[in-house]
UniProtKB/TrEMBL annotation:
The gene is cmk. It comes from Harryflintia acetispora. Belongs to the cytidylate kinase family. Type 1 subfamily. Pfam families: Cytidylate_kin. This is Cytidylate kinase. Its main location: cytoplasm.
Length: 220
């Protein structure tokens, strides 16, 4: 099986670029952030603080997660319920970042992610795919962009969905999530030693896709 790992901070364009590449190459695109988001959502729904290191692990035995792929992309099922839309709110983004620093949560998701990559050729995006989940991936890319540019893209996305948000709030959230993700003790966001770093600041979507495609073709 071939695995392409794409890691990087939120809003660097990982998911849209990875989805497009997977479509071109006939690989399955796996968005691992959706799994952390689903656990974050479950914690919120059960009145548990997402950073609670005792209560969150206690919820895990009640959780079954499944990814299914349809024409319109990946769907995530939380205990049989399709939560793909519900997990895309700013509150759930922050909750996902909270639960993701808990070792039991990462261990719970590790096997699931590795099992998916063992069955099919994947382009998997996340924060620790190249470093922890698939250290043997044939291609590892660390995709990044300036925080302002990432916040601007996220803001446009939320506006397009009709969400009422302020740019300053989105930027503050991006900075806070970056800090959480890069400073946590377990599986912090950082490039794998053998990853190729690609900075998409100032690129349009097509430029980023073709830049990544060249990196992949060079490695495979
Ligand atoms: O990629 P996305 O923004 O959907 O991820 C939501 C959160 O899940 C991230 O802020 C990060 O804290 C966490 N995450 C992670 N490891 C991954 C994917 C996501 O810690 N592989």
């Amino acid at each position: 099986m071939i695995a392409i790992a794409i890691d990087g901070p939120s809003g660097a364009g990982k998911s849209s670029i990875a989805r497009s590449l997977a479509g071109q190459m006939g690989y399955v695109y796996i968005d691992t952030g959706a799994l952390y988001r689903a656990i974050g959502l479950y914690a919120l729904e059960h009145g548990v603080e997402p950073t609670d290191r005792e209560k969150v692990p206690a919820l895990l035995p009640q959780i079954t997660l499944e990814l299914r792929h349809r024409q319109d992309g990946q769907h995530v099922y939380l205990n049989g319920r399709d939560v793909s839309e519900e997990i895309r709110t700013p509150a759930v983004s922050m909750a996902a970042s909270g639960v993701s620093a808990i070792p039991e949560v990462r261990a719970f998701l590790l096997e699931l992610q590795q099992g998916i990559a063992a069955k099919q050729n994947v382009i998997m995006d996340g924060r620790d795919i190249g470093t922890v989940v698939l250290p043997g991936a044939q291609v590892k890319i660390f995709l990044t962009a300036s925080s302002e540019e990432r916040a601007r893209r996220r803001y446009q996305e939320l506006l397009a969905k009709g969400k009422d948000v302020a740019y300053e709030q989105v930027l503050a959230d991006v900075i806070e999530r970056d800090r959480n993700d890069s400073t946590r003790a377990i599986a912090p966001l950082r490039p794998a030693p053998d990853a190729v770093t690609v900075d998409t600041t100032g690129n349009d979507f097509e430029q980023s896709v073709s830049q990544l495609r060249s990196v992949i073709e060079e490695k495979l």
